[in-house]
Design brief:
Length: 712
């Protein structure tokens, strides 16, 4: 039995198809007509009570089934009318007698008005609304997808919620696309109804006259009753379904059911109701108007509007009433009632910001933001194959594994302030990097000595500043043959983002993240954490240690070693910690294997060294300030150093290793701070930070030139 019920729709459709072939008795046709009217009423009521179209997502398919059912009934009734001298059941006869009431011409005119009203007004309107809704839903999909991705990256929703929202957007697009086609079925049904009416009337009169036995008036009356009755039993369900179609495709901006929305939105406008009552009362001055009826309606409108106005005024005032923040926190939303939570009225922007707490919503600053021009949206929009979010997830996971720090969520949004091909990267609300991509091209990095030049649009690679050019996809293989490194636009974007995040990682390490990292370490080393925090190491000091390591590209993944070394050093020197630089150097020495791994290839590390005389000179130039020692070189020595470093760094261009300058432990931090403002990507290491089993290969040296010796 259960299996039969699971195929009930299939059996119903097959039965409908049989109606087109098998003649049915008038009694069974009456049952089919009653079922058709009942089903149409049920569908109309459902469309008026749902809150959103997807709650009745089967409607397009149901529209096809009900239309097929009506056509099957029309065929059966037409067969009975033409073969049984105008008789096709009691329902058709009852409808025909009720409409005609002895006057064939008036009855046919009324019937034609009903048919044309449905065809021209309701069906045509529903068809147009469906068409526009389908087009705008599809056009809005990229923006909706980006909004979901932005909420996901900002942490407002989790992966499951994002997945559910994406599925809903896809279902909406499919639904409105199906409705666009389904409304054509309703339109065709209306046309078919007119054709069936003509066939029944003209064909019936011809058959009645040919068979004889009755006058032309009797024949016309008999077949007119049957035609109008048959047309009405088909048009009433069709009218209901057409109305339901219009209802469901116009529910896009609804917040509740149709009954709830009408009640809520009409009762929220008492002034408009009272004004309408006054205008109706003024109509009584026109001669011949029904004064009593007008005054009854007018008094009802004025009284109802006054009652609603008093009811709204009696509601609690704004004091102490919260606001539901508008999406994105960008403006006032509707005022929320303290108990029922129902919307009372719309508030203006000025009223919204009278509450000082709402002003704080404007102060939120995202840790990382990316803004895109219109042409770059396909790189982000997953519905059209965009893979930026997946690549960001992979980068975040890899960075966490390498550096021991989870970068915060990245908010993605489109921006009308950028050119169509531009993107912008912001850290804490301020732009730190900007680039331009050509989505339909590939970026070819210029080699040092290309075999041949390839045609393309010259540009600069945004992450590393390498001269390059945008080439067409068909030129990719040829460019690789000529020695160019070819990169797709998405990889260019992700690489730029990753480099910006690495450069600013120390700015993104907040106090909250510090606490999170400590708590995560506590799972494996609870005794160590309990001993260190907060008796010896406070979170402020620990944040300074970790941000200093991250700024110089040192991973903080080995949290236990960092904490143990800090604890050991503080135990020796005592509290408070006066020399944070010395503490950092001890931690870096403890992390020598990690640091060595970053800049070592095949057991060898290529470095730029510093001669002894230059280092002695710099030691003598150390001066003590309010925040500790700093390197105060003469302008001549500083300029000479910068020129030498510029020359020496070119030797690393052909190497995959990052530039490294090797100094003594005493000078390392001071020399780093000196050159960081000129060469932020150059790493300064001390001999104590290099593992013993590594071979150091000097490829250049910084010296104190003769003129500088005399000056020194």
């Amino acid at each position: 039995m259960k299996k039969i019920l699971s195929y009930s729709v299939v059996l119903f459709v097959l039965t409908v198809i049989l109606l087109l072939i098998i003649p049915l008795p008038a009694a069974i046709v009456d049952v089919a007509i009653i079922l058709n009217i009942s089903l149409s009423l049920m569908i109309l009521v459902i469309t008026m009570t749902i809150r959103e179209p997807l709650e009745f997502a089967i409607f397009p398919s149901l529209l096809l089934i009900t239309t097929l059912f009506r056509l099957g009934i029309n065929v059966s009734t037409t067969r009975n009318i033409l073969s049984n001298s105008g008789s096709s059941g009691q329902i058709i006869k009852a409808f025909g007698d009720f409409i005609l009431q002895g006057n064939v011409v008036v009855g046919l005119v009324i019937y034609l008005i009903i048919v044309l009203m449905q065809f021209i007004v309701i069906t045509k309107g529903a068809e147009r609304v469906s068409e526009v809704a389908a087009r705008f839903t599809l056009d809005a999909m990229p923006g909706k997808q980006m909004a979901i991705d932005a909420d996901l990256n900002s942490g407002l929703i989790d992966e499951q919620q994002a997945k559910a929202r994406r599925e809903k957007i896809q279902r909406e697009a499919d639904f409105y696309g199906s409705m666009d086609g389904a409304t054509k079925i309703v339109k065709g049904d209306s046309v078919m109804s007119l054709i069936t009416t003509g066939v029944n009337l003209i064909g019936g009169i011809i058959i009645g006259l040919v068979q004889g036995g009755a006058t032309i008036g009797q024949v016309a009356t008999t077949y007119s009753i049957a035609t109008v009755g048959d047309g009405l039993v088909g048009q009433i369900p069709s009218l209901l379904i057409s109305t339901a179609t219009g209802m469901i495709v116009t529910r896009a901006v609804a917040e509740g059911s149709l009954n709830e929305d009408i009640s809520k939105q009409f009762t929220a406008q008492p002034t408009a109701i009272m004004i309408s009552g006054v205008v109706v009362a003024i109509l009584t001055v026109i001669p011949g108007m029904p004064v009593i009826q007008l005054l009854m309606v007018s008094s009802g409108l004025i009284g109802g509007g006054y009652y609603l106005s008093r009811k709204i005024q009696e509601e609690p005032s704004m004091a102490g009433v919260g606001f539901a923040t508008a999406p994105g926190g960008e403006g006032p939303a509707e005022e929320a009632a303290p108990e029922g939570g129902e919307t009372l009225r719309q508030v203006t922007e000025e009223e919204y910001y009278k509450d000082v707490n709402n002003v704080y919503n404007l102060l939120t600053v995202e840790p990382i933001e990316m803004e895109f021009g219109y042409s770059l949206i396909p790189l982000v929009d997953e519905s059209v194959g965009g893979r930026l979010i997946n690549r960001i997830v992979i980068f975040r996971r890899q960075y966490a594994q390498d550096m021991g720090f989870v970068i915060p969520s990245i908010r993605l949004r489109d921006s009308s302030g950028l050119n169509t091909n531009q993107y912008s990267i912001k850290i804490k609300g301020e732009e730190v990097a900007k680039g331009e991509l050509l989505v339909d091209y590939f970026l070819a990095l210029d080699p040092e000595n290309p075999e041949m030049e390839i045609d393309g649009i010259e540009t600069i690679e945004p992450a590393y500043g390498i001269p390059s050019r945008w080439i067409r996809p068909e030129d990719r293989e040829m460019a690789e043959i000529y020695g160019y490194t070819v990169i797709d636009p998405l990889s260019v974007l992700v690489t730029h983002l990753s480099e910006v995040v690495k450069q600013h990682a120390h700015e993104l390490l907040t106090r909250q993240e510090i606490i999170h990292l400590v708590e995560n370490t506590k799972k494996n080393s609870p005794e160590l954490i309990e001993e260190a925090f907060p008796n010896f190491i406070n979170y402020s000091l620990f944040q300074k240690i970790l941000t200093s390591l991250l700024k110089e590209g040192v991973p903080i993944k080995d949290m236990e070693t960092i904490i143990e070394t800090s604890l050991e050093s503080i135990s020796e020197t005592g509290l408070p910690v006066k020399d944070v630089d010395a503490l950092l150097e001890r931690i870096r020495t403890a992390l020598k294997r990690t640091i060595t791994r970053l800049y070592c290839e095949d057991g060898s590390m290529k470095v730029i060294t510093m001669d002894a005389e230059l280092e002695r000179t710099m030691v003598s130039c150390l001066s003590k300030g309010e925040r500790g020692y700093y390197l105060a070189l003469s302008p001549e020595v500083l300029q000479s150093l910068i020129n030498q470093i510029t020359v020496q760094l070119k030797k690393f261009n052909s190497l995959s290793q990052s530039p490294v300058i090797l100094t003594s432990q005493v000078m390392r931090v001071h020399f780093y701070r000196l050159i960081d403002q000129f060469y932020p990507n150059v790493r300064v290491l001390s001999f104590n930070e290099i593992a013993n089993n590594i071979q150091i290969q000097s490829i250049g040296s910084l010296t104190l030139e003769s003129s500088e010796r005399r000056g020194a």
